[in-house]
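Re: your question about Aldehyde dehydrogenase domain-containing protein

S., sorry for the slow reply, the queue was backed up all week. Below is exactly what I fed in.
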Amino acid sequence: MSTMSQSSAAARAVIVRDKWSGEVIGELPRAGEREIEQALQAAEQARRRPWPARERAAVLQRAVALLEERRTAVLETMRRETGFSRKDVEQEFARAVVTLTLCAQEALRLGGEVVPLDASPGFEQRLALTIRVPVGIVLAITPFNAPLNTVCHKIGPALAAGNAVILKPAELTPLTAALLAQILDEAGLPEGRLQVLYGSGSEVGLRLLRDPRIGFTTFTGSTEVGAIVKRETGLRPVSLELGSVSATIICADADLERAARDVAHAGYRKAGQVCTSVQSLFVHTSVEREFVERLSAQVAALKSGDPADPATEVGPLISESAAARACALVEEALRSGARVLVGGTCTGTLFQPTLLHEVAPPMRITREEIFAPVVSIVRFERLDEAIEAANASRYGLQAGVYTSSLATALELARRLEVGGVIINGTSSTRADGMPYGGMKDSGFGKEGPAYAIREMTVERLVMLGP
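Result:
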């Protein structure tokens, strides 16, 4: 693993602050043109050197062991640079261990297939097969809201496939990624296989996107920036995991206690800064009153405040500008007729867990991603109403459904225009081994090690003949 040279001017350092106290907790060298070019050259040289699958798997497995050894330091770094609660960072850490373990396993499973040729006259004496070869250099651009697990989901499959990787972590939360890179280095990662560059997306990210030596780009972030990624990469392949206004539907026959408990977690974990976080909650009128009472009690019980406090469940938002934007969306909804059941206030970056009622689909809060601890209840009478409202969104990442009817579950699985439909779970339900990705303005491509590793390789046909 290599990071950019420390010779860059200290004045251009990436300064990282504790998101609760504002204290400076780290400085990293900001990449300039010289460092970017050095990283690209090192990656280009590394990708041309043989790296057997067994060695790739061994490095990743050793990294898992080292990550678990450094658990305390990684958790503390992640908590401070994100502002997430202790429970949130512990959950992300546990998921990252699973993700890296799966990547190590996939390095040994990656293979091709035999291709039958007998259907074509004259090919009876020929044999064809496919092999998977690395794309070369993978560029991974990662978001602030999952500085460990999303990084693992991007660089893990890329390394498992035999690529060289250039990682550009979020400027607001790069310290966790730096620790992971150090762990991979100590695990025996060959020289040049991982370069980490720190800086802004508009400078470092854009320069890397335009470089033809990048063979594949994997990006998680906003839809607006995703469009820039696609534009700048031209014909080169990309995987985009973008924004969403995720819906969860509570049907008349739902288990209301279970649904309320799940939504109180999934709508407010990481202070709602999750692309699949429950934002629009469609509730059938026949159970609306009972469900709203149950959910209101659950949300009101959530403790917000200092993430260092073990009792805190909802910490601050990532920045004051993010908080101001969320406040504006809530205030606009209230002017349009929505009602606050719980929360609704914001002090600095601390946005109180908020539950809105009497929300209707025309409101902007049902159309734009809020990325804050806010859940909006939308009532429906006919299932078609909920489906049509959910599908009217320009996004399509995941949706949740609560029902005891198999017929209803199957109908919603077929009709909801999203990348994943979770039955009796919220939109934010995710196992790290499953294929994960969206459609429409939520992007395309799949995460999940077994699926991402295929996207980060080229399927090459080999035909043999006498």
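Residues 323 and 349 are 5 Å apart (CA to CA). Residues 2-242+442-464 form a domain with the Aldehyde Dehydrogenase; Chain A, domain 1 fold (CATH 3.40.605.10).

Happy to talk it through on Thursday.
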